[in-house]
Amino acid sequence: CLSLTHQRLLGIGLAPNALGPLTGWESLFTLDSSIFDLILRLDLPKASEGVTKADLAKASAAHNALEDFVQKLTTQLSPICLVFRDLDARAVALKWRPAAFLPQHQHVLMGAVPHTMLRGQDGGVPICVPNVLALTSLVASLGEGLVSEIRVVGSLSGKTL
Questions:
Q1: The model's pTM
Q2: How far lies 89's CA from each of 54, 59, 70, in Å?
Q3: Mean pLDDT calculated for residue range 46-64
């Protein structure tokens, strides 16, 4: 435990943070974002002191849009992933359910999630696996106007879409 705390304090082996660079003690208390599979950085206006009513209305509308976005993600992707949201409205993270990506036979509940059909062994019944590229595209289209960056965390090179 002390070794891990020492490494995190020095920034050795610390996974890059989805929310920007860390300074000082922030790195010790920041969640390690490498546990997620997909991280969406949000671009929302913030309400601050001394702003006009129009700015407050814009920030309120953006917050409502974020709530709708998270609700749509949760509703449409709940069979294959968990959706997490940063309360500061800076990021939304997805964690794939490993069992959802095991090859399985097609059934009625798969309708909402795009799948890729694979030929069964010895010409048998085809099997399905969720199509990750189509799912990432779906997330990007749902977040259009809210999401400024999509990062696939589990990739070897940490690709940003």
A1: 0.69
A2: 20, 11, 11
A3: 76
Predicted confidence (pLDDT) at residue 93 exceeds the cutoff of 70? yes
Provide the 3-class DSSP secondary structure of residue 101. helix
Q: How far apart are CA 109 and CA 111, in angstroms?
A: 6
CA nearest to 91, candidates 39, 22, 153: 39
Minimal CA–CA distance to 150: which of 63, 54, 41, 50?
41
Binning the chain into helix, strand and coil, the percentages to the nearest 5 are 40, 20, 40
Residue with tokens 């997490």: 84
Give the mean model confidence (pLDDT) for residues 101-108: 71
Residue 97 Cα distances to 26, 43, 100, 130, angstroms: 29, 27, 5, 11
